[in-house]
Automatic annotation (TrEMBL):
Family that this chain belongs to: Belongs to the cytochrome P450 family.
Gene3D superfamilies attached to this UniProt entry: Cytochrome P450
Cofactor(s) for this UniProt protein: heme
GO biological process assignments: sterol metabolic process
Binding residue positions for heme: C405
Protein name: Cytochrome P450
Pfam families to which the protein is assigned, alphabetical: p450
Top-level division of the source organism's lineage: Bacteria
Annotated signal peptide: none
GO MF annotations in UniProt: heme binding; iron ion binding; monooxygenase activity; oxidoreductase activity, acting on paired donors, with incorporation or reduction of molecular oxygen
Keywords linked to the UniProt accession: Heme, Iron, Metal-binding, Monooxygenase, Oxidoreductase
Matching PROSITE patterns: CYTOCHROME_P450
Length: 461
């Protein structure tokens, strides 16, 4: 399968009517070479707000290394993500950031080739498979949480990160029997190195840099997966690794060994940090809003210890809390694209070769679409209010268009299954004045580990 990039040719009259991208103010050029990278790392939302207020939905964001625009507001984001004229490609944009480490993951494929791979991968996320993953997930969660120490300075983020990795080792790998705990920690570190490389300034295989580390880490991940590949090809089990080895479309399309390894590395990365961030954000807000914690706990206690997929889907208050957490802290706040032919967004001409940053996080806090957008208010997702319906792209933590997250139902199930057990076994508090100090080098995570006071419930229920 190969990708096709269609030749561009908007009609001449239409091109003449388009506005040029606004000129970048001198004061917005940022540092030589890297432009506004540090402003983004410091406070992505502040940068997005500045761009919106200064320039509107299509704003210039140039440096000596990149010629780019930032798209803000749900209309502009929708236009880019729906990508009607196939003008935007993922690989040349995401590839510059995570490419060598998440090489040929689904998100880095484009057009026909992407379509072909996505059709095969969809078979791994059918409802029946999700139900099987759910059943398998409960023991993994119980085991992963068993060793948690309680107390006033419990660091939620690293504990959840370890938990989601343990879950991944089971649900994705089917258990990594030949791998010791120390080796698994090495693999976890390899994932982190690959993800953290996204914000590397030196984008080459140079020792001691983020990219240098990530090049070595990718090899660790490849060795780890290739070791298990023959066994996975030989036997059908219900973990994602085995499923990827065996799935095929109606017309018999299957993944090669290389495809399986590439997709596994990307899938584990895509599932790991995003779910950890979502769960830790929920823990923070539930710790600061005990009334919501109690409401969610009552729902969790009304079910047994190992709820089925439909039962998890019936946890409504918890679902609204999850959506609110994804709104307030989108794990992927910015989506990357490159224009591969001349096109237009919101009436602005976007020339071929432009890097496009789709600022989904900003849509989540626009007063035009949300009441008191900075306030934690899960009920805004209730059937009576449905503020997320104010615009089709007002709430877009999973993206949109053909690259929309293929794991969104899996993610919802995993996050709610973890929270269900947490609510039954523990209660916790977080200082109401706490604001998570986020590290925005790659995906936003709390760099203080997100401390909270965790207490085990008297009877483990
Ligand atoms: C809360 C958790 C998650 C969030 C917020 C999230 C977010 C996203 C977003 C925004 C995209 C679109 C990227 C783009 O358009 O450039 C995406 C794509 C993707 N996600 Fe997720 N994700 C989550 C969990 C997962 C999980 C659990 C899996 C797998 C089990 C997964 C697998 C993928 C894959 C394979 C893609 C690429 C899809 C494609 O290009 O066709 N994600 N995700």
């Amino acid at each position: 399968m190969t990708s096709t990039i269609e030749p561009a040719a908007p009609p001449a009259a239409a091109v003449a009517e388009l506005k040029p991208i606004p000129d970048q103010l001198r004061s917005d050029r940022g540092l030589p070479l890297i432009g506004r990278v540090f402003d983004f790392i410091k406070d992505p939302l502040a940068l997005m707000r500045h761009q919106w207020e200064t320039y509107g939905p299509v704003s210039p964001l140039y440096s000596a290394l990149d010629q780019g625009v930032m798209l803000l507001g749900p209309d502009a984001c929708e236009e880019a993500l729906r990508n009607k004229d196939k003008a935007f490609a993922n690989e040349p944009a995401w590839g510059k950031i995570v490419g060598p480490f998440f090489h040929r993951g689904l998100m880095l494929l484009d057009f026909d080739e992407h379509h072909g791979h996505r059709r095969i991968m969809q078979e791994a996320f059918t409802r029946d498979r999700l139900a099987a993953y759910t059943a398998r997930m409960h023991p993994a969660i119980e085991q992963g949480m068993a060793g948690w120490a309680t107390g006033p300075r419990f660091k939620a983020y690293p504990a959840l990160k370890q938990l989601t990795l343990d879950i991944a080792a089971d649900i994705f790998m089917g258990g990594a029997q030949d791998t010791s705990r120390a080796e698994m920690d090495h693999v976890n570190k390899a994932f982190i190195d690959c993800v953290q490389a996204a914000a590397g300034i030196v984008r080459a295989n140079v020792p001691l840099t983020r990219w240098g580390k990530a090049y070595r880490s990718r090899k660790v991940l490849e060795r780890f997966l290739r070791h298990y590949l023959p066994a996975k090809r030989a036997t059908r089990t219900d973990d994602i690794f085995s499923v990827l080895c065996h799935i095929e479309t109606e017309d018999g399309e299957r993944f090669s060994d290389d495809d399986v390894v590439n997709h596994m590395i990307f899938l584990m990365m895509a599932a790991h940090d995003t779910s950890t961030i979502t769960t830790s954000t929920m823990l923070q807000y539930l710790g600061q809003h005990p009334e919501w914690q109690e409401r969610c706990r009552a729902e969790a206690l009304a079910l047994g210890p190992e709820p089925t997929l439909p039962e998890i889907e019936g946890l409504h208050a918890l679902d609204w809390v999850m959506k609110e957490a994804l709104r307030l802290r989108a794990p992927v706040p910015l989506l990357m694209r490159r224009a591969v032919k001349d096109t237009a967004i919101q009436g602005y001409r976007i020339p071929a070769g432009t890097d496009v940053m789709v600022g989904v996080q900003f849509s989540h806090v626009m007063e035009e679409y949300w009441t008191n957008p900075m306030v934690f208010d899960p009920e805004r997702f209730s059937p009576e209010r449905r503020e997320d319906k104010s615009h089709r792209y007002a709430w877009e933590p999973f993206g949109g268009g053909v690259h929309k997250c293929i794991g969104l139902y899996f993610a919802g199930m995993e996050v709610k299954a973890i929270m269900h057990r947490l609510l039954r076994n523990y209660h916790w508090t977080v200082d109401p004045g706490y604001r998570a100090p986020l590290d925005n080098h790659s995906l936003p995570f709390p760099k203080d580990g997100q401390p909270l006071h965790l207490v085990r419930n008297r009877s483990t229920r």
